[in-house]
């Protein structure tokens, strides 16, 4: 494999979400949050789509977020392992309901604020830069009950207060922020992305795009507050990215692929360029959607755009306008995709496409001309512990090495990339399936899908590989010892 070059000060690290690692779901004054209502099993996906019967945990179901991997109590030990790998950055999220248990409380919860103070101090002790997502698939349940979550304009001011509280409290400790994790997921998993619950017969598109507008305004207000309170900070947005390929060179397929990409770009177009694109306005007209806006919204969006584009990349997608071809869909990926005959798939049906990573990075940089930050990338796979207590995850090393090599090519292409925080540097609860067996980490956590296990941590082979990658600033991607 060719030697690769990365800029000095490149932020190598990993990425986590509060609801997938912390556990302690009602400890320390924390309120109930939307992810706390997602069990494992068949019911999970129905709820993620917004078909929610109960806004309380239901007896008889297993809720993986309630304990997760107990990072709330083990973060010091886990961060020491990240430091051993040489992390320069750790992306984490703050749980809104830890700071404001109901989402709209008069005063923040001091115990919650102190937890993140301690967490950031622990990172800084090792020279690890905190990269903080303000909202990562996390809405306090009280706001869903009282206001219908992001369908209500009221959430804009609650979010602004929450974000401002974080900036004021952590202005000396955190210099990299992001507003909403994978903001485009609102269209695909509306309960996860925006806490939306639908009633029979409602126009779901109208509700989703109105909620999107509220999140976009809230994001602009957070950018404004961040720039005022922490002038030397950078605040970005975050996209679930992955280019859509046309299945053929039929112009109908080409246009369909462009439309699929625009479905996601819409959010970043507004956050980065500061206005609603013409194609979105046409979509609203064609679908009789009436997005309620306040007089000051356009000016807010225009004047307070993000500093960088954060994005996740796991897979590319394929679309077609041929009904026969559309029968060949792959499972596993939320976005849905026609099977790509040129590519392999993961155990969960996700396309493995390292070249697509370079394509996506170039596409985003060409479009926005702002620095990019790769804040998620990784392979979910079943890992086996050998009798000797080892996890030989060569498949993960192979996946990551090929993606990092393509990221280096993107940088060579002229794409400005701030850093790379691979997803799930320690095994965590899967956001999509709630499983533990879908593992991403360099560190194995002894826990199964039913919640059994000691939670003991174990370094995988990839742990030592990633340490060498960081030490060499991406120059050495070799899998020492081979396969």
UniProtKB/TrEMBL annotation:
It catalyses: 6-phospho-beta-D-glucosyl-(1->4)-D-glucose + H2O = D-glucose 6-phosphate + D-glucose. The keyword Hydrolase applies. InterPro entries: GH, GH_1_N_CS, Glyco_hydro_1, Glyco_hydro_1_AS. The active site is at 376 (nucleophile). Keywords: Glycosidase, Hydrolase. Transmembrane segments: none annotated. The keyword Iron-sulfur does not apply. It comes from the Bacteria. GO terms for biological process: carbohydrate catabolic process. Pfam families: Glyco_hydro_1. Belongs to the glycosyl hydrolase 1 family. This is 6-phospho-beta-glucosidase. It comes from Bacillus yapensis.
């Amino acid at each position: 494999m060719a030697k690769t070059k990365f800029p000095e000060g490149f932020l190598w690290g990993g990425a986590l979400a509060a609801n997938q690692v912390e556990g302690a779901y009602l400890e320390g004054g924390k309120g109930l949050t939307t992810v706390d209502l997602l069990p494992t099993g068949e019911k999970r996906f129905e709820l993620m789509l917004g078909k929610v019967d109960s806004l309380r945990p239901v007896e008889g179901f297993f809720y993986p977020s309630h304990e997760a991997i107990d990072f709330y109590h083990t973060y010091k030990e886990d961060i020491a392992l990240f430091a051993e790998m040489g992390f320069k950055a750790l992306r984490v999220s703050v749980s809104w309901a830890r700071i404001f248990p109901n989402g709209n409380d008069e005063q923040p919860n001091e115990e919650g604020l102190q937890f993140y103070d301690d967490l950031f101090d622990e990172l800084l002790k090792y020279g690890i830069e905190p990269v903080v997502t303000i909202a990562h698939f996390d809405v306090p349940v009280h706001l869903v009950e009282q206001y219908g979550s992001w369908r209500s304009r009221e959430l804009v001011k609650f979010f602004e207060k929450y974000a401002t509280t974080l900036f004021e409290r952590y202005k000396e400790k955190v210099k990299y922020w992001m507003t909403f994790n994978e903001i485009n997921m609102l269209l695909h998993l509306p309960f996860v992305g925006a806490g939306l619950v639908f009633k029979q017969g409602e126009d779901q598109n109208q509700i989703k795009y109105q909620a999107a507008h509220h999140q976009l305004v809230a994001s602009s207000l957070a950018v404004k507050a961040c720039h005022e309170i922490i002038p030397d900070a950078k605040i970005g947005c975050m996209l679930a990215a992955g280019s859509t390929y046309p299945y053929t060179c039929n112009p109908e397929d080409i246009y369909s692929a462009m439309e699929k990409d625009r479905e996601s770009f819409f959010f970043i177009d507004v956050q980065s360029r500061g206005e609603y694109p013409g194609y979105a306005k046409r979509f609203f007209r064609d679908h009789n959607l009436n997005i309620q806006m306040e007089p000051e919204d356009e000016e807010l969006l225009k004047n307070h755009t993000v500093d960088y584009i954060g994005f996740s990349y796991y897979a590319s997608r394929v679309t077609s306008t041929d009904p026969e071809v559309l029968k060949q869909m792959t499972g596993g990926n939320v976005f849905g995709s026609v099977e790509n005959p040129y590519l392999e798939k993961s155990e969960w049906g996700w396309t493995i496409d390292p070249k697509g990573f370079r394509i996506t990075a170039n596409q985003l940089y060409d479009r926005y001309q702002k620095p990019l930050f790769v804040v998620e990338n990784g392979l979910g796979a079943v890992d086996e512990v050998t009798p000797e207590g080892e996890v030989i995850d060569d498949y993960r090393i192979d996946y990551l090495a090929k993606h990092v090599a393509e990221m280096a090519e993107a940088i060579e292409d002229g794409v400005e990339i701030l850093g790379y925080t691979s997803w799930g540097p320690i095994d965590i609860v899967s956001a999509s399936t709630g499983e533990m067996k879908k593992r991403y980490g360099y560190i194995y956590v002894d826990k199964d899908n039913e919640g059994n296990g000691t939670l003991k941590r174990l370094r995988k082979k990839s742990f030592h590989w990633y340490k060498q990658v960081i030490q060499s600033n991406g120059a050495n991607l070799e899998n020492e010892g081979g396969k």
